[in-house]
């Protein structure tokens, strides 16, 4: 069920409709359907079509291509969280007998395995999966193009291996596992491996004439975990909300945050474009906004799921054409329209219910050498160390329960922070991964590595 569209202002709804209308007309898509999610709920749905009286709604299936990879990644992360595997494990440990056994599960998830982008000819997206019945048929005689772990190189066969891994550890077909562990708990009833009516047909639009050609709809067989799924804007809107909020029946918010964290070394062009691949998800920069999600394409279909996490707005765009439409741009624009027209209203500030006095003592200004930093205790019980200048290393830290704190991001991710006290219990300095932070620049009363010149600070005589 779609949430009443009155949740958005009339001007916002019209701007959204105008954007998809322009996209469908200029992209020459037979049909386009879109949805917007805010606060975990679908607040807008719109569609445009070339057929009078047959506009698709949120229940019409389209093929979503590589957005399937995000579903497969969720299944793998579930296995990790259950302790059945570690992301650093070589594939051979759990799925023996492949020629790719030395690559790690994390490398497969992040497209850094070095495997080829596609399976051997014929073109797998337009031919039956029965032509590639075994993993060896998917990988071919020369599966590797690059050294593992060295560079980002998108690989559909890599996600085929992840699907086979899921099947091996669960003892059931990939789609069956997906249905019981993800689709049913999240109530994604209109997401399936094969199309179920009502569904759109896939079309190729001639690049130089306004005529169309039907595209084949093949069962991808072994390649299914890389791009098989059909879904709707209604289901993908619910999936988008899950990717932000988490659902303990499927995957925790913390594990989803890990999935949204860049994990692959980007190419130079990707650095310039603000693109990075994570663990089954992509991040893209659109203006000053960082978006996370995934795109998908198969002959006859284009798809995009994009989330502005900071804005708490997500968009889904589905179209039934092979090319001509930049769905990622449309999705980014839908997020931007809502985020700018109706900015997220923050929750009311509330004081902490409790604070450890020994930690409160750390709050305030600190210096690493002559660099000024501020340490704050945040409302979520973390501590944040931030440069006073606005530029430089920053991180939040989580308490470990033993007096130490672990960095969560940036330069200090995984590094320990601890307070060093004098014999009488006074905090002398903070030790952050061996860096000494003092209350004054090069405080002579603290244990500053290399010591402090006994003549102290001076001017030019």
Helix-strand makeup class: alpha+beta
- Poorly predicted runs are 1-5
Average pLDDT over all residues:
94
The termini sit apart by 78 Å
Q: Share of helix among residues?
A: 25-40%
The oligomerization state is single chain
Strand content: 15-25%
Task: Tell me the Rg in angstroms.
Answer: 26 Å
In which order are the strands of the major sheet placed? 12-13-14-15-16-17-18-19
The best one-word shape is globular
Task: Identify the notable features of this structure and list them briefly.
seven-stranded antiparallel sheet; single chain; alpha+beta; 19 strands; 461 residues; 22% strand
Question: Mind explaining what this structure looks like?
Answer:
The chain has 13 helices and 19 strands. By secondary structure, it is α+β, with helices and mostly antiparallel strands. The strands form 4 sheets. It has an 8-stranded antiparallel β-sheet, with no helix packed on it. It has a 7-stranded antiparallel β-sheet with strand order 2-1-11-10-9-8-7, sandwiched between helices. A hairpin with a 5-residue loop joins strand 17 and strand 18 (427-432). The protein is globular, with a radius of gyration of 26 Å. Residues 1-5 have low confidence and may be disordered.
Nutshell version of this structure?
With 461 residues, the protein is α+β, with helices and mostly antiparallel strands.
């Amino acid at each position: 069920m779609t949430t009443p569209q009155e949740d958005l202002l009339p001007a916002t709804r019209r701007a959204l409709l105008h954007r998809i209308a322009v996209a469908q007309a200029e992209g020459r898509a037979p049909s386009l359907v879109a949805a917007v999610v805010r606060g975990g709920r679908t607040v807008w749905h719109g569609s445009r079509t070339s057929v009078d009286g047959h506009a698709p709604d949120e229940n019409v299936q389209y093929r979503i291509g590589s957005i399937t990879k995000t579903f497969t990644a969720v299944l793998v992360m579930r296995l990790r969280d259950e302790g059945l595997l570690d992301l650093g494990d070589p594939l051979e440990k759990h799925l023996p007998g492949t020629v790719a056994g030395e690559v790690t599960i994390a490398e497969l998830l992040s497209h850094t395995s070095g495997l080829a982008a596609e399976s051997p000819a014929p073109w797998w997206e337009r031919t039956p999966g029965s032509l590639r019945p075994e993993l060896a048929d998917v990988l071919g005689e020369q599966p590797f193009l690059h050294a593992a772990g060295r560079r980002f190189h998108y690989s559909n066969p890599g996600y085929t291996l992840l699907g086979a891994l899921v099947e091996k550890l669960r003892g059931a077909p990939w789609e069956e596992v997906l249905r019981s562990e993800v689709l049913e708990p999240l109530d994604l009833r209109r997401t399936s491996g094969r199309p179920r009516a009502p569904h759109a047909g896939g079309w190729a639009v001639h690049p130089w004439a306004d005529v169309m050609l039907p595209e084949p709809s093949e069962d991808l067989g072994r390649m299914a975990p890389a791009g098989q799924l059909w879904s709707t804007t209604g289901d993908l809107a619910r999936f988008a909300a899950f990717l932000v909020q988490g659902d303990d029946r499927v995957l925790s918010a913390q594990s989803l945050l890990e999935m949204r964290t860049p994990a692959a070394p980007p190419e130079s062009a990707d650095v310039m474009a603000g693109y990075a691949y994570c663990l089954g998800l992509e991040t893209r920069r659109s203006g000053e906004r960082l978006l996370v999600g995934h795109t998908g394409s198969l002959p006859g279909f284009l798809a995009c799921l994009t989330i502005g996490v900071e804005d708490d707005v997500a968009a889904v765009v589905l179209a039934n054409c092979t090319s001509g439409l930049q769905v990622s741009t449309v999705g980014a624009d839908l997020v931007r329209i809502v985020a700018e027209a109706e900015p997220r209203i923050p929750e009311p500030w509330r004081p902490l219910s409790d604070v450890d006095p020994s930690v409160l003592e750390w709050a305030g200004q600190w210096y690493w050498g002559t660099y000024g930093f501020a340490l704050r205790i945040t409302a979520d019980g973390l501590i944040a160390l931030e440069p006073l200048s606005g530029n430089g290393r920053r991180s939040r830290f989580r308490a470990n329960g033993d007096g130490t704190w672990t960095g969560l991001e940036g330069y200090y991710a995984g590094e320990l922070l601890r307070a060093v006290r004098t014999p009488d219990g006074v905090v002398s300095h903070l030790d952050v991964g061996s860096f000494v932070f003092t209350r004054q620049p090069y405080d002579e009363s603290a244990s500053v590595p290399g010591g402090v010149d006994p003549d102290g600070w001076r001017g030019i005589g």
